[in-house]
Amino acid sequence: MTETDPRMHVRYDAAAAEARWRARWKEEDVFRARIDASRPKYYVLEMFPYPSGKIHIGHGRNYVMGDVIARYKRMAGFNVLHPFGWDAFGLPAENAAAERGVHPKGWTYENIAAMKEQLDLLGLSLDWSREFATCDPAYYRHQQRMFLDFLRLGLAYRKESAVNWDPVDMTVLANEQVIDGLGWRSGAPVEKKMLTQWFFRITAFADDLLNDLKSLDRWPDKVRAMQANWIGRSEGASFRFALAASPGDDETVEVYSTRPDTLFGASFIAIAADHPLARAAARTDPALAAFIEQCGRTATTEAAIETAEKLGFDTGLRAVHPFDTNWSLPVYVANFVLMDYGTGAIFGCPAHDQRDLEFARKYGLPVKPVVIPPGEDADAFMIGSEAYTGEGRMAHSAFLDGLDATAAKARAIEALERLGVGARQVNWRLRDWGVSRQRYWGCPIPIVHCDACGPVPVPLADLPVTLPEDVTFDAPGNPLDRHPTWKHVPCPSCGAAARRETDTMDTFVDSSWYFARFCDASPADRPTDLAATDYWLPVDQYIGGIEHAILHLLYARFFVRAMKAAGHLHISEPFAGLFTQGMITHETYRDANGRWLSPEEIEKRDGLVFTRGSNAPVTLGPPEKMSKSKKNVVPPEEIAATYGVDCARWFLMSDSPPERDSEWTQAGVDGAARLVQRIWRLLNDALPHMAEKGASAEGAQGVVLELRRIVHRTVHELTQDLEQFRFNRGVARLYELVNALGAFDARTQGAGAVLREAYETLVLLVAPMMPHLAEEAWALLGHDAMVVHAAWPKALPELVAQDTVTLAVQINGKRRDEIALKKDLAAAEVEAAVLALDAVKRALAGGRPKKVIVVPNRIVNLVV
RNA sequence: GCCCCUGUGGCGGAAUGGUAGACGCGACAGACUCAAAAUCUGUUGUCCGCAAGGGCGUGCUGGUUCGAGUCCGGCCAGGGGCACCA
Known about the structure:
35% of the residues lie in helices and 20% in strands. The protein is of the alpha+beta class. The strands form ten sheets. Strands 8, 9, 10, 11, 12, 13 and 16 form a seven-stranded mixed beta sheet that branches. A four-stranded parallel beta sheet has the order 2-1-24-25, covered by helices on one side.
């Protein structure tokens, strides 16, 4: 070691510096947001977490991404709101209670405390003063009030609906608790059971929810497409077939179809297994009853039904064709028709629907083409194993013959209307939102059931209806339901003995309005402070996982509309910008016995993997989502204590496009750690050569000017990258700047002012991603005020613009040479310069090019 | 089955229809060192060639274009979503 090599002395102590700066941010309360009408606001929100226990560094990606945006926007002059809270009701707390005898409340709040401590290490610029958990009565009391508002507005109602019932545990199961049709604890076959439950009328806003997707131009197209499909608007007709004879009260069967134009190609009617007509027919037909029971047992997911064999059962009934009373069709019960959708009955047109075709072939039903592809003869056209779903002319269809599908559809609907048997109808796939859950750890539904008065709202003055704490989880079923006293209350209306509603709300309700409460979490008498929500909402940037693309986001969109109707908000769309980030994966390890091993339990030597400190071989698995069960998790506290959290933040932003999955690797962390030290070292080396703070960098020449250009170009490009969520590209730009600084000799004559500008700019640019290092460096550069209060640098356009450009020279589209020219040169001058090149002369061999394409400042292509 | 997304070096990935492989990781070589670590410098798609240079290259296959990783058609592979969407 020599005294003259300063690199030996400077080493950035991340762990110490980070703790110091976090303490100072906290002390000075710098992240507390306040309404300030004089500044543009910016509301950044990451989807709040369920407090399940501990977080790992994979969770950090989401929060760091939001934090980078929050810190950048703050420096760019925005008044930033960046709050945090807890989605604290839910099933895992009850599972923990049942398995380990801990109370859901205690378990939840302990988890919150542990996770908060871990999150703090990440150096997030959060305003903790607005924190709440959705299980706080101070939060859910307002949710109960809004439930009553919705009830008053007709947006909440009760109806019968099926649940998964475990006949052994005598309890309702969530979908995830049903495994292969069996209850997860009891193993008993799950039954369908009808219960009267509460629903939110989300379908009242179906049109709005679909149409307004167009306005969400800062949402991923993918998410908008998923929501549009989910809402599923279809246009068609609803109409009745008369029954030739009926086993029940119905004399007709009503079907819904989007293709009434193909009605002359109909060959059967199919009804759902739980259609009233099916039930009626089954009363006298035991075989049909058995078939219906069998249908009830098959899984109800779309994928399962779609791939399952299409089965039908002929009821023996006949339905009369509305356009030809001499024509009747068989009525089948089919396992692919759902009672929930449309009318629960369809007509099958095998020639033009693949599923109907397979059904018809199976049961020997006629296949009659009525849409003839262009160029085909109407009488000769036959359907083989593929239904024809394309365009064409109608044939064999009486008054529809010769029309195209659109015209035929309109004409068929007119005819149905004239006959008085049906009408045009818009149908939605979207169904109302069932919010009742037969669970303890959720927001109680504020209703009292009275034998005389029916369901009666709990008076506002009596809210919140709080959960009793003396509950047990040793028996199956809902602890609220079997609590000795809690549910017994007088009717608020007549005073007679009555019972509380013991269902609690779906936890998706809790997460449907928390972002509004964050605007001001203090009012005790109302859900929102309108002055605060008017200022802060909508959320400018919402960040979370793609798994919430449909339900959570759709429910929140419904909820703000309902809240608006109730006077609690003035907006209709909660999230102006949405970003869905990918997961963090990590490779997995298993020992010879197949036991999962954590990253700390293994070591790599010579390209092989062993358990740490031994020669026991380890099987290396592919990178998978970090999860406790596979032990491939990295705790944030470990990174914070060793490399410093800035290093982790940097790595999380650096490797992959943020919307894609990204693998956490030791090599990647090492690379990030090297950069942290490199910046620190370069800064320390350059410091003695820098000009004073505020020195003008104007008038630089030569290599110094070149460096300055790079600095300003980096500002320009990184700013764009951050605006567009291209963190990985921004990181690459910063590496380029650091590389340029590393290659620059700090002793260069007259470089002092540019050096200062360059390093100050670098520090400001890395600040959103590495906020602690930036503070430490900023202080070293002689600043008393913190970087969090500093302004984002501005690029000077004249330094961003290039005055010379390199054009590629192509001959017949192949690159043959390149040429450096002044920017924006006239095409003729460019052509002349290019024609003078040796490579071009050689290629032309004295001739003239047939064509010359000059793309300004880009490329010249000669066609010879 | 339906809807959506993604296929680029050894790896993660760059690239408004205009020089494919920026930047990082890894690897190799060198400098410094007694040695190592750290750091620095250089090389690194592939094939032919001493070199200059050239051929081939973005899952496959057609097409549009002066020019295609990028646009269009048809395949193949991987991933995600799904509540028979009538």
